[in-house]
Specification:
alpha/beta; Rossmann fold; 2 domains; four-stranded antiparallel β-sheet; binds adenosine-5'-triphosphate; ATP-binding; AAA+_ATPase
Length: about 250
């Protein structure tokens, strides 16, 4: 089977006030069915721009992108995209925050609620369907935003630094939880992170980007058995990957 996402020779520049900003330069990436792939790179190098292009939120690129073998420009495929600051609306309760994109997709409220109720226990949110944002912990808000993304009918999930705002303990918990969800439902995931440890712990493969304009400096396969647990992060192999990524990012 071909790749779910294939990005070939992608270039992207922004033009603003007569100035050209080259952001992506000859990016090549693939994500295969059911793979967990991370993108890591310096701040502002163009990671979110790649996601925006894949989701058709940013046009005017050169190169080719295909989704399930179909050119992005003619693909009808819907993407589940969680933005960096995917905030819940404080005036809506949890189930209405989550149902909103489903209703926008044309699902009726009753059906949306049914889907949500089915998944609440899996996302550790059972009993909180009527809670407002201020009643939820940081981890719960993050899980709610992920559930909202997860319920979009797509086998590809693009997650832009979903755990960036969490403290270390919650981040660890959320990584384990995300892996358990991913192992259960086998979506293809493209994941942006600033954390080397997080990228190694979660991924099958990692793409390391350079400073802007971003090029792919390294594509690295992570050969650590699954299911993963926190014991893996002290293994010598984990530390070898860590040193390699650290040196590549320098
Ligand atoms: N719509 C736009 N118009 C002009 N410039 C833009 C636009 N979107 C992004 N940029 C610029 O492109 C560059 C890359 O931005 P992008 O958000 O893709 O980086 P990033 O790697 O995701 O950053 P971070 O890691 O800090 O989230 C930045 O310099 C940004 O200012």
């Amino acid at each position: 089977m071909g790749p779910k996402i294939e990005i070939s020779n992608l270039h992207k520049s922004f033009y603003r006030d007569g100035v050209t900003l080259d952001v992506l330069k000859d990016i090549n990436m693939k994500v295969y069915d059911g793979e967990f792939v991370s993108v890591i790179g310096p701040s502002g190098c163009g990671k979110s721009t790649i996601f925006n292009i894949i989701c058709n939120l940013s046009s005017g690129y050169t190169g080719n992108i295909s989704i399930d073998g179909v050119d992005l420009k003619s693909s009808k495929k819907r993407m589940a995209y969680m933005h960096q600051k995917d905030l819940l609306m404080p005036w809506k309760n949890l189930k209405d925050n989550i149902s909103l994109p489903l209703e926008i997709q044309g699902m009726d409220k009753k059906e949306a609620y049914e889907k949500i109720y089915e998944m609440l226990p899996v996302f550790g949110l059972e009993g909180f369907e009527n809670a407002y944002t201020f009643e939820l912990s940081g981890g719960m808000k993050q899980r709610a935003a992920l559930l909202r993304t997860f319920l979009i009918d797509s086998d590809i999930m693009l997650l832009d630094e979903p755990f960036g705002a969490l403290d270390a303990i919650n981040r660890d918990k959320m990584q384990l939880w995300l892996l358990s969800i991913w192992e259960k439902f086998k979506r293809s995931v493209l994941f942006i992170t600033h954390s080397i440890d997080e990228a190694i712990f979660l991924s099958d493969r990692i793409y390391v980007l350079s400073d802007r304009p971003a090029t792919v400096k390294l594509g690295l396969s992570i050969d650590i058995e699954r299911p993963r647990n926190k014991g893996h992060i002290t293994s010598s192999r984990f530390n070898e990957y860590k040193a390699l990524l650290f040196n590549t990012l320098e």
